[in-house]
Write the C-alpha cells for this entry.
Amino acid sequence: MDKREAKKSLTDIMARFTGYVGKRLPQDVLDKLAQLREGEDSPLSRVVYDSMFENLEAADRLDRPCCQDTGVIQYFIRAGAGFPLLGELREILGDAVREATRETPLRHNAVETFVEKNTGDNTGTRVPWIEWDIVPDSDSAEIEVYMAGGGCSLPGAAKVLMPAAGYEGIVQFVFDVITSYGVNACPPLLVGVGVSTSVETAAMLSKKAILRPIGTRNPKPQAAEMELLLEKGLNEVGLGPQGLSGNSTVLGVHIESSARHPSTIGVGVSVGCWAHRRGTIRIAPDLSYEILSHKEAVL
Amino acid sequence: MKKVLTTPIQDEDLESLRAGDVVYLDGLLVTCRDVGHRRLIELGRELPVNLTGLAIFHAGPIVAKDGDAWKMISIGPTTSMRMERFEKDFIEQTGVKLIVGKGGMAGDTAEACKRHKAVHAVFPGGCAVLAAVEVEEIERVEWLDLGMPEALWVCRVKEFGPLIISIDTQGNNLFEKNKAQFNEKKGPVIEDINRQVRFIK
C-alpha cells in the first residue's frame, strides 16, 4: 500500500484501539479487582464492588466507555527507527483521537489553556500527549494508550528531597499523598513511584510505573522489597473502595527509578484509579498488529 | 427494601438519613461542577435551572445526539472536593437538597447541610454506564457554551444509585471520620516501613 493508504489504515487501527481501551479494562486489572472484592466484608464495600462489576458488565454489553472521564489521551511509544511511519505517527495519533472521540464516543476533555475553551475533539496544543522511546534495531512500534480521569490525576505530586531524608522521606511522601488525596481518586488505586534526580524525571518515571502490568516487580531487589512494603502498609491504612474504608487500598505499588545526582532524591507519585484504562498494541512494519494488554480484543 | 428519594425533596425526607445509609433517587438530577459553581457564586450569574428541592450531580457526562434529543452514554461522579470552595454558598442560594459526587466534602459544606437540611452522597466513582442507564431522559441542556463536561444537563432519573450518604442533615461527615482513622493508622505503619528501607548507609 502507498503511504497515504498506510497512514489511513494505522489511523483507523489506533482510533478503534483507543476507543476499545476506554471500554474494557485489561485482564490483570480485572483479576486484581476480583481478588480484592473477595477480601472485603463490610456492607458499603460490597455495595461499591457490586456496582463496579455491574458497571463493567453494562459497559461491555452496551459497548460504551466504562468511565465517563476518558481523560486527555496519552500515548507512550516504543518504536524502532526503522518503523515506516515513524515521522507520521504524531499526525496519525492526533487524527486517531479525533476519530475515536466521534465514534466511541469519548468525552471532550481538552481545554485549550489560557484561551479556556474546550476544543471539542480531544486534541489541542501538545495533545494527545506523546512520549517517545527509540528501540534499537527494530522496525516495529509498540504503542501504549493511557486514559486517566481527572480524579486520579489530582493526587499526582513530585518533589525533590535532600539526601538526609533518605528512602524514609519517599515513604512519608507516598503515604501523605495517598491518605490526603487518595480517597477522591477512586480506590483501589495503582500507585506509581518514581525515584530519580529532579521533579520532571521522577514524575515521568512514576507514570511509567503505573503502565507496568499489575504485580510485576522492579528488577532491583531493594526496590522490589519497597514496592511490597508500601503495598502492605497502604493496605493496612485501609482506604477501601471509594475511600469508604475497608481491608485494602491499592491494586499495587510499582516503583521505577534512574540513577540520580548524589545531592538530590527526586520523588514522584502518580495514581491510577480502579478503572485503570491502559492498553498496549504492537504494530509490525506491514501494519499487522497484536494487542498485548487485552488478549481477547477484536477491533 | 430500597429507600428512594423523590424530587422535589422535602426536609423531612432527609432528616432520618444518616451518614453511611444507601438511598436511590427518582426525579430531576442536574449536572453542575466547577464552572457552574463559579458562575453562580463568584460571577453572580443566575443559574438557568431552579434547583429548589432538586439534586445536583458533580459530573460531566458523555452524551450523544439522538435525532433532536440527547442520549446519555456514560456519566459518573467527579471529585466533589473541587467544588468545596463554593458549595456552602451554593446550597444557601439555590435550595438544592441532594448533592451527589465522589469522595468527601469539608466542614463548610457539612455546616450548610446541617443549616439548610441538605445531604451529600457518593455515587461509586467510575460506574458511569450503570449511572447512564438510570437516566431515563435528558430533558434539556443549559450553558452548553461551557462544553460537554461543564454544561448543565437536566436529567430525569429512575432509581438512580446506589447513593451512599456521606454528609447528613446533622452534619455527620463520613469521609472526615474515615480520614481521621486513616491518619491515625498511618504513623505506626510508616515507622515500621522506614526501619526496613534504610538503603543509604
